[in-house]
Design goal:
Elements lengths: L3 H9 L8 H5 L7 E11 L2 E15 L6 H14 L10 E11 L9 E5 L8 H8 L2 E3 L14 E3 L9 E5 L8 E3 L3 H5 L2 H18 L7 E6 L1 H14 L7 E5 L20 H16 L10 H22 L5 H15 L3 H6 L6 H7 L6 E3 L7 E3 L12 H21 L38 H10 L4 E7 L7 H9 L5 H4 L2 E6 L9 H19 L3
Parallel strand pairs: 4-7, 4-9, 9-10, 10-13, 13-14
Antiparallel strand pairs: 1-2, 2-3, 3-7, 3-8, 5-6, 11-12
Helix pairs in contact: 1-13, 4-13, 6-7, 7-14, 8-9, 8-15, 9-10
Length: 531
């Protein structure tokens, strides 16, 4: 199974050039260090002065508890190059960019850790598109012209509400891995959660922030990491004040797959339908198009969880007259033709929808953001073969961050910045949820982790954000999974939901970005009073 956000990541981060051996194994990259600079940003009319810190912390594979000794062993082994010596255990040098507001007392100042997902993505997108003090200028719902790209003051930076720490996952960005079985040590659901938990606790110690209010913000696969972290950090005696999810995917059973490959699994088509309808509405492919999107989606959600769900559950026993009726309803909501929908057996996959919606114009919609559209590469293919939204923004983000890191942050490590790495197919998806005695061989689901974290800390607040035009992690899938979160009624009010007329990366739409900033900043301020 290939998840849509993994295909989108592949487009966002093309296969990187093979790294030179000394880039990976050179011990200089496994010695914690930092550079510091000063800056200011104006948010809501207020000038905020800050200190920027670009640096690395070294974490080790799960089970290696003596971190200081491990660091020394990695460095010593790399320096000696002794063929008779065993290869040191795996280590990751994790890159981060932190922003601390000047003059704010660290004891009471909120601290937020932010990361993207993939798996295999750096945090360049949240950093340079959403909440860092600088933002790259890109076209909204259209292709961004080539360099030179604009880098401007980000008036929607979250520095008005919290200090910020953007973290690159092991192997991405300027982060690197080394040592014995390094890929197995870090490229997996539980291994990844462990690395981030280790990083966060080290960071709290290094910068004296143990008593600061703490928040985690994850996007895409980062929401799976974030939900797992809420519990993993509790196991290290760290309670979060808040967990913020953007474009969430906590249960991979909800990811659409080809019905020819995985028949009888119908739920993914149900939760994806509202996003298909939103996309058809946006591109004027809905007959008698309603003036407002949200009431239209209310109707589609009711159909998806009602008549449509019942029809799919009947499988081959669905009467022909009912099959025709459902196809007519689907056509009215999605803009796809009845004959096409009958050929698909009423089950719409994301890649086919992207290519089919505007096939008469030889146009393909985006994956991460279906508002974007581009020329179809292969008119005879069954599925879309690229993501126009990724192609429209990726070069701008990568170029802007490379310049910003070296010229503004003065961080010049002498290695390639990797916006993403192609590890999706090699990722270890086994996860050991609370209560299980071993990792499960199944699609990962961190709803049990989040539920346990909320039960153990009834003050933990959760904020869910998403875009209506996101096929990669459909907004209604997020609604559905959290409706099934196994927590008592008293804790359900600890979750709030916000959805925007944008895509996976909500911040690509300026109006949605402004609204999300205000919602997240408000969430931080409200939850501070809960302690």
């Amino acid at each position: 199974m290939i998840a849509p956000f993994a295909l989108a990541l592949a487009a966002l981060a093309q296969q990187p050039a093979a790294a030179a051996p000394d880039e990976i194994e050179n011990p200089v990259y496994f010695e914690p260090g930092e550079t510091r600079t000063k800056g200011s940003v104006r948010v809501n009319g207020q000038a905020i002065r800050y200190q920027a810190i670009a640096g690395t912390l070294v974490v080790h594979s799960k089970g290696w508890e003596d971190t200081d000794a491990a660091e020394a062993r990695v460095a010593e082994a790399d320096k000696k190059k002794d063929d008779d010596e065993d290869e040191p255990k795996a280590a990751a040098s994790m890159f981060y960019t932190a922003y601390f507001r000047d003059g704010a007392p660290s004891a009471s100042r909120p601290l937020m850790f932010l990361f993207n997902g993939g798996p295999g993505s750096s945090s360049i997108w949240l950093h340079m598109g959403a909440f860092g003090p600088k933002r790259v200028v890109t076209s909204d719902a259209g292709h961004t012209p080539p360099a030179p790209y604009g880098l401007v003051e980000n008036t929607e930076s979250l520095l008005d509400a919290a200090d910020l720490v953007f973290i690159d996952a092991p192997g991405t960005g300027f982060s690197r891995i080394a040592g014995k079985d390094k890929e197995k040590a870090f490229f997996g659901v539980d291994q990844d959660i462990h690395a981030f938990a280790d990083f966060i606790t080290q960071f709290l110690t290094k910068y004296g922030r143990w008593n600061s209010p703490k928040y985690v913000f994850g996007e895409s696969y980062g929401t799976m990491r974030g939900a797992g972290l809420a519990l993993a950090l509790q196991n290290r005696d760290v309670d979060l004040n808040g967990l913020i999810l953007l474009s969430d995917i906590l249960n991979w059973d909800l990811v659409p797959d080809d019905p020819q490959v995985n028949p009888s699994v119908d739920l993914p088509y149900i939760v994806s339908l509202p996003t298909y309808a939103a996309t058809a509405w946006y591109h004027n492919r809905v007959a008698n198009r309603p003036a407002q999107l949200r009431p239209f989606l209310d109707e589609v959600e009711a159909f998806a969880t009602g008549d449509y769900a019942l029809a799919l559950m009947k499988g081959n026993t669905l009467p022909e007259a009912e099959r025709q009726r459902i196809a007519q309803r689907l056509s009215a909501y999605t803009g796809l033709t009845v004959p096409y929908l009958l050929k698909t057996n009423l089950r719409i996959t994301y890649g086919a929808f992207q290519k089919e919606l505007m096939a008469d114009q030889s146009v393909t919609t985006g994956t991460l953001d279906t508002r974007y559209a581009g020329a179809t590469l292969d008119p005879l293919s069954k599925l879309s073969s690229y993501d126009p939204s990724s192609s429209s923004i990726s070069p701008a983000y990568v170029a802007a961050f490379n310049s910003y890191a070296r010229d503004t942050l003065n961080y010049r490590p002498g290695i390639q910045f990797k916006p993403g790495i192609p590890i999706y197919s090699d990722w270890d998806y086994k996860h050991q949820p609370p209560g299980a005695d071993k990792p499960l061989i199944a699609l990962p689901n961190v709803l049990p982790d989040l539920a346990a974290a909320m039960k153990q800390d009834p003050d933990l607040k959760v904020m869910v954000n998403g875009g209506y035009y996101d096929i990669s992690t459909p907004y209604f899938a997020g609604v559905y999974e959290l409706r099934h979160l196994p927590v008592p009624p008293a804790l359900r009010d600890n979750i709030e939901y916000h959805y925007y007329e944008s895509g996976h990366m909500v911040y690509l739409n300026a109006g949605a970005m402004e609204a999300m900033h205000d919602n997240v900043a408000g969430f931080v301020r409200r939850t501070l009073g809960a302690r």
